[in-house]
Structure formats: structure tokens, C-alpha cells
Write a structure and sequence with these properties.
The chain is α+β, with helices and mostly antiparallel strands. The chain contains two helices and eight strands; from the N terminus they run H-E-E-H-E-E-E-E-E-E. The protein is globular.
């Protein structure tokens, strides 16, 4: 990549995601009002396009090897409020309005456990439902 192309990617106004070797980009999802971290997932170009077009978060499931729309079976969709991309366009931040819990376990966030200082155990964190 030339210096001019790099400058355009980092400071220009054109969306030009930098996908990894598997064609994926990391997407961090937060609650648009509270800022709470809800989930982390991956997107390919098709998932990003579907999200921007539909206004509801769609991701790429590495384990299933296919697209999955958040809430496709539970109804707990993530309504997109705003999508942001970082400076070098290799990570996305989706600010969403969650319809129901974010986690498949029924928790409001996928990050409902803290790692204890001993590095071996987890502590459950209370989150409002």
C-alpha cells in the first residue's frame, strides 16, 4: 500500500475495510445509550453490507461457516444506531439498540463474568436484565 493510499484509508472519507486473511473484520457491539459492551463478533463484506442495508446486525459465524443475523432464532436482534470504523479500518464498532438480551445464554451482555486475579476462576457480574 502506498503512503497516499494509507493516508486515504486512515484519514479519508471512503469506507475501505481491511479484512484479515480469512476475509473477516472484528466487530465490537455496545449499547447505544449506556455504552455497555454487549458482544464481540466477526463480519465479512457480505455481513457488513447486510447490516448497513437492513439496519440490524448480521455477522459471520466462524463455527458455522455462514452469515447469521443476530436474533434470527431468538428474535433478540441488534438494531443498528451507528457503525464506526477505527483509524486503519480493521475493526468496527456497532452502537446498537438491543431487542432483548445480547447473549445466547440470556444474559444482557456476553461479558457477564470477570476473571479473578488468580487467573484460574471467574466471578459472575450482576447486570440489569
Amino acid at each position: 500500500m502506498t503512503q497516499a493510499e494509507n493516508h486515504d484509508r486512515e484519514q479519508g472519507s471512503r469506507l475501505d475495510p481491511r479484512y484479515d486473511a480469512a476475509g473477516l473484520i472484528t466487530a465490537v457491539v455496545t449499547h447505544h445509550e449506556t455504552g455497555e459492551l454487549l458482544m464481540l463478533a466477526h463480519m465479512n463484506a457480505e455481513a457488513l453490507a447486510a447490516t448497513l442495508e437492513s439496519g440490524e446486525a448480521t455477522f459471520y459465524s466462524r463455527s458455522r461457516g455462514r452469515l447469521w443475523k443476530k436474533g434470527e432464532t431468538s428474535g433478540h436482534v441488534m438494531r443498528l444506531i451507528e457503525a464506526r470504523i477505527d483509524c486503519d479500518q480493521d475493526a468496527l464498532w456497532l452502537r446498537c439498540d438491543p431487542v432483548g438480551p445480547a447473549c445466547h445464554t440470556g444474559e444482557s451482555t456476553c461479558f457477564y463474568r470477570a476473571v479473578e486475579p488468580d487467573g484460574r476462576s471467574l466471578r459472575r457480574i450482576a447486570h440489569p436484565k
